[in-house]
Amino acid sequence: MRLSQALRASLLLGKCLPTVKSNCSRFSVKRYVYDDYLHTYFPKFTVMYAHDPDKICKTGDIVLIEELPQKLTTLITHKVNKVVYPLGDITDPITGKKVVGLRVDLGKVAYRDFYKELYELYGKNPQRKFDYKKAPRRGWQEDKKDFTHRESYIRYHEFDDDDQPYAVYK
What keywords does the record list, in alphabetical order (predicted)? Predict the structure, then answer.
């Protein structure tokens, strides 16, 4: 598949990246490119912008973006359809179970049920204090430690005397 064919796909799955543009979000879309010499596929990432006036996605979310019938600008060619997975809350689409991460020693995906069974068999590890049932949902630290909902701007140098908490360094 060529780059032009991949970019013309009507629906794409991308990861939301931080941006300074208003009314749009920046996404990293993963595609696989075939290498004729090695006869295998390699991942290639494309960065694109999508129209998001309601700011429904935050940095780190996995989002379904849809191609616009007509470009808004030269950069904005897609629009945000829906948030598939918020950051830190991945659900396996086949089993419907919540995913914790990849277990390298087992060579497979570890679900929350797996750790629940381990705790029942061996007892809870005192060093693992995190509990998914008691954990607050994402967004509870807005204006405390999470400033992704704030409008950001580009700061070109670091020697300003004034405080610029929402700046993105160039």
Answer: Ribonucleoprotein, Ribosomal protein
Sign of the dihedral through C-alpha 115, 121, 124, 125: negative
Q: Which residues contact 156 (CB under 8 A, 6 or more apart)?
A: 170
- The model carries a pTM of 0.65
Cα separation, 69 vs 111, in Å, equals 39
Find all residues with CB under 8 Å of 117, minimum gap 6, and list them: none
| Domains of the chain, start order | 1-85 (2.40.50.140), 89-149 (no CATH)
Residue 122's H or E segment, with its range, is helix 112-122
Strand intervals (E) in 112-169: 153-155, 167-169
